[in-house]
Structure formats: C-alpha cells, structure tokens
Amino acid sequence: MTVDDTGSGAGAERRVDPSPFEASADPGGLSAAESDADSGEDPLALRLEQLILGAERRYTPFQAARSAGVSMELASRFWRAMGFADIGQAKALTEADVLALRRLAGLVEAGLLSEAMAVQVARSTGQTTARLAEWQIDSFLEGLTEPPEPGMTRTEVTYPIVELLLPELEEFLVYVWRRQLAASAGRVVQAADDEEMVDRRLAVAFADLVGFTRLTRRMEEEELGELVEAFETTAADLVAARGGRLIKTLGDEVLYAADDAGTAADIALRLVETMSNDETMPELRVGMAFGTVTTRMGDVFGTTVNLASRLTSIAPRDAVLVDSAFAEELIRTGDAPASEAEAAEAAAAAEKEGEEPPVYRFALQPMWQRPVRGLGVVEPWLLTRRGGGEE
User: Fold this and answer.
1) Is the dihedral of CA 175, 176, 178, 179 positive or negative?
2) Scanning 57, 99, 217, 294, which has the fewest C-beta atoms within 10 Å of its C-beta?
3) On the CB side of 270, how many CA atoms lie within 13 Å of its CA?
4) Which residues, including other chains, have CB under 8 Å from residue 238's CB and lie 6 or more apart?
C-alpha cells in the first residue's frame, strides 16, 4: 500500500491505500517470538530460517517499507519480482529485507537504475537464485543430511550441517557470480555498438533428446532423473569448455548460444559424438540458426531462436541441421567450403602453386527446402565434421 500524509501534526489527514503485499498496518504488541509461536510453524524450521537469514523476524511488510523509506506500492513490486508470495500483515521480515529495499530504492533515487530496471534486477536475481536454492535443497542438502545413525531424524542433522556449509557456499556463490559478471561485461564492451549490446548476432542452438516422452513411460522416476542430470551435466560442461553459453535446460533439451558460428558448430557435433558413444543415453538431434537475437534477463528471443527450435524438431537422429544464414557464416569465415567441388578446386590450385591447401573444419550438405510453420520456407543444411572424424 501507499501512505500519503497531507499536512503535518496531530490533525493531519492520513490516507492508506491497500496493497496485496500488506492487508493493513501491523496491529503491534506481539514480539517476534510470540508471533512465530502463534503461527504454528515448526520451531526447528524457524531456527533454520533465522540461521540462514542471519536475523530474526521483526517487521511486517508495512513496517519494513516504512523503515526503508519506500512506498508500499514499490515494496510490493520488488517483493513479488524477487519471487516471494504475498504475506499479508505477518511479522516475517528482517533487517536484511529492509536493507534490500533500501538499496534497490537508493539505486533508483540516485538515477543509476530506472524503477523498471530495478524491478528487472529483482526479478532476474530472484528467478536465478530460486532455482539454485531448490536444487541445493533437493539434491545436495538432502543427501548430506541423511541420518548417520539409527534413531536420528533428518531435522536433527540439518541444522549443524547448514551452519557449517552456509558461509562456504555464500562465498562460493559470490565468487562464481563475479566471474560470470566479468565474462558478460567483457562481451558487452567488445560489442560493435550500443544496439549490439541488446540485439546481437549470435549462433543459437537447441539440443534435444530423441524419444524422451517414450522413456518417461518406461523408466522409473529415479532413473529418469539420473538420465536428465547426466545429459544436462554433459551438455553444460561441453558448452562451457568450448566457449559457448548455456542459456537454459528444459529436461530433455538444452538451449545454448555462441558468439560465432564455428564455436556453436563444434559444440553441436561434440554433443552428438559424446552422446552417441554413451550406450545409456538416447540419440540426440540439434538445430541451429545464426542471426539477430534479443537478450533479456539471460534468455534469448526472436526469429533466430524460433528457427533453431523448428530445425531441431525436423533434424534426423544423431544429426545437426543449420539454417542458410548459419551455413553462409561458416563459409564466410572459412570454416566450411561452399561445396565439395569448390573444396577440390581450392586444393588443386594450392597444390599447383606449391602451397598448403585450405583446411576446413566442417562440411555442409543442402537438404530439401520445406515449409516451417510461422517461418515460411526454409532451406536446412546438414552439418558434419570435415572428413567425418573429430578434430
């Protein structure tokens, strides 16, 4: 809600507008401990929350917004953007919540961020860390807190484990974030112009497991989870190692991007080669396109992305399809010949002159043109590694 004081002194009129973030001002009177006890929440859960947050519950949303010097309307927008549910008038916020509101609002007041951008910062951070937190609890922490002795409960083990891990994981999170921030900043400053910082020419690729829906009907949940994790881990490692950027994982599919077509092509073929050599993994198909891409909150959008997705759906098993723009870019950079005849001519000319023949990394084979829903007629090209082997 927003608070509007018209005038000053005891007789001033005070208007309060309701907000979903806060139904009404805190009625007051209850201590944090009394409020928690009345809520019926598990005492250990409350202790664990206080350990992780580093502070006890002290404020209602109204009190936190007032302490931060932020309107309830803006506080509500920030809170929801970070991915947290409306909490009515519960006394559930800490000094850290007040500080976070104050910092975001301060960036807006100083003119460093617009209000819309500050909300985007809150949303992107909330979405990213929410997934990280879920993974750490579901996979990592769950395994560590398995009761070591009969008769012990997981809850008896969780608190000391979290107490030991929390500072180390926090330091590691900040380190990785700074590293990623440095890499992203480096790419931005190397952009040719301001427009390229947002609408950039990138190679975009989807890698999709073939027959995944059938697998979900045949495999146990645990087996299926292990397969997905193995696929995502393999893909993430290969993409990172070869200089690409993993945009997101979708269970049976990954989306990645690279600044140049040659890097994206190498990653795609290595993914297919790696998966085909693993008998436990399904076959893979990859679709790639090259062109202008809009980037927002770490994700990519636009016709280029849609085309890559469509090419993936029609790609043969254990194969890579690219669009004509991608093929042209590989030819332009000398990573692939326009045709085998041209490659043979270039090799013959080089031999005649006593020079080394051009070395091509990839081969391109034009496929039948076909209509693609929403994108018109496209001409896919089959991408293979030159000579049929790995580099």
Assistant:
1) positive
2) 217
3) 19
4) 267, 270, 271, 274
DSSP string for 345-369: HHHHHHHHTT-PPP--SEEEEE---
pLDDT in tens, the chain (391 residues): 333 443 334 334 434 444 445 444 343 434 444 444 445 677 778 888 888 888 889 999 999 999 999 999 899 889 888 888 888 888 999 999 999 999 999 999 999 999 988 988 888 888 888 888 887 777 666 666 666 667 667 667 778 888 888 899 889 999 998 998 888 787 667 655 555 555 679 999 999 998 877 777 777 777 788 888 888 889 999 998 998 999 988 878 999 999 999 999 999 999 999 998 888 888 999 999 999 998 877 788 999 999 999 999 999 999 999 999 999 999 999 999 988 888 888 888 887 888 888 889 999 999 988 887 778 888 899 999 986 444 4
- Tell me the residue type at 239: V
Q: Please choose, from the candidates 321, 318, 298, 297, the residue with its C-alpha nearest in 3D space to the C-alpha of residue 309.
A: 321
**Which residues lie closer than 8 Å to 292 by C-beta, 6 or more apart?**
199, 200, 201, 302, 303, 304
Rg (CA), the chain: 27
* DSSP-assigned letters across all residues of 179-196: HHHHHHHHHHHTSSSHHH
Work out whether the CA dihedral 197, 198, 201, 206 comes out positive or negative. positive
Q: How far apart are CA 193 and CA 39, in angstroms?
A: 55
The span from the first CA to the last CA of the chain, in angstroms, equals 62
Angle between helices 221-241 and 261-276 (to 10 degrees): 140
Tokens at 213, concatenated: 């829906």
Residue 163, C-beta contacts closer than 8 angstroms, at least 6 positions apart: 51
Query: Which stretches of the chain are DSSP H helices?
Result: 32-39, 43-53, 61-68, 72-81, 95-109, 115-135, 142-144, 154-189, 194-198, 212-218, 221-241, 261-276, 303-314, 324-332, 340-352
Could you tell me if 377 and 369 are in contact, meaning their C-beta atoms sit under 8 angstroms apart?
A: yes
Put residue 354 in one of left, alpha, beta given phi > 0 → left and psi -120 to 50 → alpha: left
**What SS3 state is found at 220?**
coil
CB of 205 within 8 A of CB of 268? Answer: yes
